[in-house]
TrEMBL record:
Keyword Nucleotidyltransferase: yes
Protein name in UniProt: Glucose-1-phosphate adenylyltransferase
Domain of life: Bacteria
Nucleotidyl transferase domain location: 15-284
Chain positions recorded as alpha-D-glucose 1-phosphate binding sites: 107, 172, 187-188, 205
Keywords, in A-Z order: ATP-binding, Carbohydrate metabolism, Glycogen biosynthesis, Glycogen metabolism, Nucleotide-binding, Nucleotidyltransferase, Transferase
ATP-binding recorded as keyword: yes
Encoding gene per record: glgC
Known catalytic reactions: alpha-D-glucose 1-phosphate + ATP + H(+) = ADP-alpha-D-glucose + diphosphate
Domain Glucose-1-phosphate adenylyltransferase/Bifunctional protein GlmU-like C-terminal hexapeptide: 307-410
Pfam families from the UniProt entry: Hexapep_GlmU, NTP_transferase
Length: 418
């Protein structure tokens, strides 16, 4: 198929983004927001990557299923993703769990989230449905996955990330034949099956699935009354199709988007504090593994109207400066120094403070003479003058959420308890 054929397939597709999960491994960061709504990369949210991939792939009909602490996510989608035009058969539907089938309103599983919204999906009359997880960081052209789905005649095509065999035990792993047909699906295997022709790599599910719409409706309606089912794609729907011989794998490397600066496919689950911190700090590298500056595959988001960042004071020990850092609009770096930091919108750092390896979420404020190293500062937190974080592991662990790798999460309630 050529580009026009893939674009036609994308136009016939609706993307359904599963964005209801809390992401409990992010601890207090998800006390007030769902994981897909967590800030990432200076000005975006995690969900913006799946949404941007769909939009850039030519898919302009998107449904987002929300559930846990959904207010900030819904507000973000309304502000940043309201550019779809109904007269062009485009649209964004935000789909909270809302008693559509019976008196119980919570989504029972990922498949049930789709089942409860079949009537809404039907209204768009899609030929294909693309199921996406809303909580991963990556760039992918889904039209290539749609193309493979049509060419193989698959019942379901499963997006898979190639991982080293030694790391694959942490994932659901696909065993495939030389034609990408999935012959077995094993959850967190001790001895993961490897890819044909490469015994060092395994295929792990990305939680991305392509179905023909009518087939998906059929299997979901069959699954809905089954009391033995957990109504989940990964646990119930996909394994059943694998047994029937209708599932195919799509390796991420075939459709990942590389800008020219990126040396290899990039996909991250930022579901732990360590992974979240690392993925943000990675962006400050001279050649970051993920290029968010590329204009040919933009990451769309809601951008606040704020003034440019400002750096002030120029005295020894009191110089507003940043090295190997990303500083967003509205920030004021007042006589303080930053090294390998990611500052989101509106962060203020006061004189003589020093930050190293800090991810500061919007409108955080760092007081005078504070020293913060290897930390995540939650939105709006006010760091008191003189606070030291990153020097004494035992003291840090008493006061803040400290990981085994030494990353501290700092929230306002933790500061208030000092």
């Amino acid at each position: 198929m050529d580009n026009n054929d893939r674009f036609t397939l994308a136009q016939q597709t609706m993307a359904f983004v599963l964005a209801g999960g809390r992401g409990s491994r992010l601890k207090e960061m998800t006390d007030v927001r769902a994981k897909p709504a967590v800030y990432f990369g200076g000005k975006t949210r995690i969900i913006d990557f799946a949404m941007s991939n769909a939009t850039n792939s030519g898919i302009r009909r998107i449904g987002v299923a929300t559930q846990y602490k959904a207010h900030s996510l819904i507000r973000h989608l309304q502000r940043g993703w309201s550019f779809f035009r109904a007269e062009r058969n485009e649209g964004l539907d935000i789909l909270p769990a809302s008693q559509q089938l019976d008196e119980t309103n919570w989504y029972k599983g990922t498949a049930d989230a789709v089942t409860q919204n079949i009537s809404i999906i039907r209204g768009y009359e899609p030929k294909y449905i693309l199921i996406l997880a809303g909580d991963h960081i990556y760039k992918q052209d889904y039209s290539y996955m749609l193309e493979q789905h049509v060419q193989t005649g698959a019942k379901v095509t499963v997006g898979c990330i190639e991982v080293p065999k030694a790391e694959a035990s942490a994932f659901g792993v696909m065993a495939v034949d030389e034609n990408d047909k999935i012959i077995d699906f094993v959850e967190k295997p001790a001895d993961p099956p490897t890819m044909p022709g490469d015994d060092t790599q395994a295929l792990a599910s990305m939680g991305i699935y392509v179905f023909e719409a009518e087939y998906l409706y059929e299997i979901l309606e069959k699954d809905r009354p089954d009391d033995e089912s957990e109504h989940d794609f990964g646990k119930d729907i996909i394994p059943a199709i694998v047994k029937q011989g209708g599932a195919y794998a799509h390796p991420f490397s075939r459709s990942c988007v590389l800008s020219g600066l990126e040396s290899e496919p990039y996909w991250r689950d930022v579901g732990t504090l360590d992974a979240y911190w690392q993925a943000n700090i990675d962006l400050t590298d001279f050649n970051p593994p993920l290029d968010i500056f590329a204009t040919d595959w933009p990451i769309w988001t809601y951008s606040e109207l704020v003034p440019p960042a400002k750096f002030i004071h120029n005295e020894e020990g009191r110089r507003g400066q940043a090295v190997s850092s990303m500083v967003s609009g509205g920030c004021i770096i007042s006589g303080s120094s930053l090294y390998r930091c990611m500052l989101f919108t509106g962060v203020k750092t006061h004189s003589y403070s020093q930050l190293e390896g800090v991810v500061a979420l919007p409108y955080a404020e760092v007081g005078r003479r504070a020293y913060i190293k290897n930390a995540i500062i939650d939105r709006g937190v006010k760091i008191p003058p003189g606070l030291v974080v990153g020097e004494d592991p035992k003291l840090d662990a008493k006061r803040f959420r400290r990981t085994e790798k030494g990353i501290c999460l700092i929230t306002q309630s933790m500061i208030d308890a000092l």
